[in-house]
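User: Sequence in, structure out. Go.
Assistant: Echoing your sequence, followed by the structure tokens.
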Amino acid sequence: MWNRIVYGLCLIFFIAGCSESATPVQNDFLNYVNEELEPIGELEEQTLTSLHSVTGSNYTNDETLKQALEEEILPTYRKAVDKLQTIQPETKELQDLHQQYLEGAEKQLNGFEDAVEALKKKDQALMNSSNRQIADAQATINEYKKGMEKLAEEHNIDYTVEGLE
């Protein structure tokens, strides 16, 4: 029925320090990326590895995909979203961007959950909806990435986004 899932996870890492007279935005940005997001990036990488193992050219059948979603992908990604929900940046600029990231991650989680239901019910319409949710989530996360790059540039922060999509 379904041999490919639309997906994209965001891994954001590597940031160099600012000058000794860092602004509140610079300090918040550095803490956010280097401290708050690091464990989330590790969970997203685990999720992506599991997802790659059962989708695309590695797809074997719906049951294997459903099992991976239920046993590996969803539990790991739920942990990432739970951790995202606890992060509270100090500056307005970062709060707004973080909210965008959280919304994208929550949409993606909902898409994964709907994919499981679609596989259980063998419901192609629900699977199509799941894929649209995940694609929409990825678009939201990509906008977040662009916003982070722009904020870093505006505040003279050396910042690199590394992503596996």
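User: And one key feature?
Assistant: Residues 1-19 have pLDDT under 50 and may be disordered.
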